[in-house]
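hey can u check if this looks right to u? its 396 residues, i copy pasted from the old doc so theres a chance i mangled smth
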Amino acid sequence: MASIALSKRAARLARRGHPWLYKDDLRKSDLKAPAFSPGSIVRVHDDEGRDLGLAFASTRSKIALRLCGPWQGDLVPDLEEFLADRLRRAIELRIGMAGENGGVRLVHGESDLIPGLVVDRYADVLVVQATTALIDNALRLISRILGELLSVRMILARNDLAVRRLENLTEEVVLLAGEPVERVTIEEHGVEHIVRPFAGHKTGMYLDQKPARRRVQQLSTGARVLDLFSYQGGFSMAALSGGATSVHLVDQSRTALEIAKETAGQNGFAQPESIQGNVFDVIRDLRSTGQYYDLVILDPPAFCKSRREVEGGIRGYRDLNRGALRLLAPGGRLVTCSCSHHLKPEQFEDTIRQAALDLPFRVFVEERLGSGPDHPALLRLPETEYLKVRILRRWD
C-alpha cells in the first residue's frame, strides 16, 4: 500500500486542517519514497500512526501533498473508484443550482476533495481544467465518468493555464469527448448569455459572479450604468434586464464588446454603448467630460497573481476604485470586485477605504458578496474564498 508517515511537524499541520503540505514540511526520506511518483494517491498517517485520510502526492511542485479527505478502510482506493465517488458527490451537491440550460460549477477542486480539478457545465457542455499531475493523467478517465453521470454534447479540457507550469504540465486545449461546440447559450436570471468554451476567459464565463449579477439586476431599475472591464457584458445584460435606462461597456477587447452587443440583441435589449480602450484612461476621460452614473461595476482581472505582486496590485485597485467612486452620481452605487486570492478580504477593504479618503462625500459599505454555493469555500483553505465583491454607496 502506498502510504506516507508524516513527521511530527507535518502531522501537526495536517491535524490543524492545512490541506496542503509543502516539501519543506516533510522529511527528505518521505520525498524519496516510491509513493511520491508524479500523480499518485497515498494514504497519510501522522507520526503516531493515526490515519489522516488520502492525499495526492507530487514531486513536481512545492506542494508535495494535497489532502483529499477520508476513505473507508485503511487501503488506497483504485483511481477509478476514487474519482467516481468524488465526482458523483460533487454533482449531487449542485442538484437544483441551475436549470437544464443554465451554467454551474460542478467541481471546485479542494472544496470537493478533488485537488486540481475544475468542472463547469454550460447547458449540455462540460469544460474541465486540470492543475495537478494526477488529474491531468486521469482526464480521459474523468471524461468517461462524467459522460456516464451526465448527458452532454461535449467535454473540453481548457488546460491553457500558466499555473500548470508549476507541475511541469503543458498548456493546451483538448477535446475529450463529443463534437466541438464553439458556442453555447445559457440562461441565468432570465437572461441569455453566449459562452465560448474554446476561446472565452477561464472556462468560457465567470460563473462565480452569478450572485453579483443578480444583485446588479435588482439595483439597475432606472439607472445609468457603467460596466468597467465588461468583457462580454455579463453585468451589462443583468443591468439591461433589470431596467437600466442606459449602459456603457468598457473593455480593451473588440471581440468581447461585439459579443456583448450580439447578446443584447439576442435578448431583445436596446443596444448598449461600448467603449474600447484602457479602463484607467477611459475613467479619466469620462470624469473630464462630467459623466456620472447611478451604478458602476468594477470587475478587473486579478492584479495580484503572486505574493510578490500584492503591493503593486493594491496600488492598481486603489487607483481604479478612487476613479470609479468619482464617477458616481449622488446616491450612486459602486459594485467593486477582486478575484486575487493573494489579496485578503481585509486588505481589499483597506484598499477601497484608502480610495475613498478625501472624497467630498461619504461612502458606505452596503453589502459584501462572494461566489455562489456552487463555488463552496473551504474554511480551512482561504484560497477557495478568492472572490470579494463589495457594494459601496455614495451619500452627500
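The chain has eleven helices and 19 strands.
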